Amino acid sequence: MNARLVTLEVRNLCIAAQEGERAGRLIEDLGFSIASGEVLGIVGESGSGKSVTAAAIAGLLPPGLAVTGGSVSLEGRALLSMSAGERRALAGSRIGMVFQDPLSSFNPVRTVGSILAESVMRHRGLAAGAARDTVVAAFADVRLAQPERIFSAYPHQLSGGQRQRAMIALALINGPALLIADEPTTALDATVQLQILTLLKRGAGSRALLLITHDLAVAAAVCDRILVMHRGGVAEEGTTAQILDTPTHPVTRQLLAAAQALPGVAA
Fold it and tell me: For 193, left (φ over 0), alpha (ψ -120 to 50), or beta?
């Protein structure tokens, strides 16, 4: 880890399913950290535990799953010992989340702009007019054409790429310390993928970015370091160059073999 301030630190994290056929440990003694201004990619095949890890950090584990050990700290604050209300407040202000499918993540009966406006009014105390101006500016920042029109549009009226840009705007609008992007380009075509990855890298700035993906080529395009997960644990971790040039674990070699070439992403 470099000398920059550590934003996120995960130590010996354990997550278990509490009931049903999935009962048992899903994540076992997982540990990593991300510094401010750094991009860490967590890569692995389906079922390796990537998204479960992201959900635990964000406080979004589904019913039936629970953290059973370890610690998660954001800017030195222990997340797992916070109340539900404290976690909700933190999730809206210091943690930004970009999901794989923004169509299902946005409320379909509300305009996209109103969802973002509610967030800035709640977490930054802005009046309605100032909130609207802030949201329109945020839409422009993620290069959405006609941001005033986007403000009044419903999710189903936007393309997949537009919705994902709006989701990035929502994740960034309150200036979070940590941005988590969970499979943010899976449902997009290659050209839009590249645009979204560029936005994520540009939006990371001085904050920490955690990118979850099954595609090693996607991680290679934007990440400073890569952590490869396998069966709920760490297979290997290193700089992007180390993982690409000298992989040591068979699952990493398999992911490399499956990766398709992706053009480099501009900073």
Answer: alpha
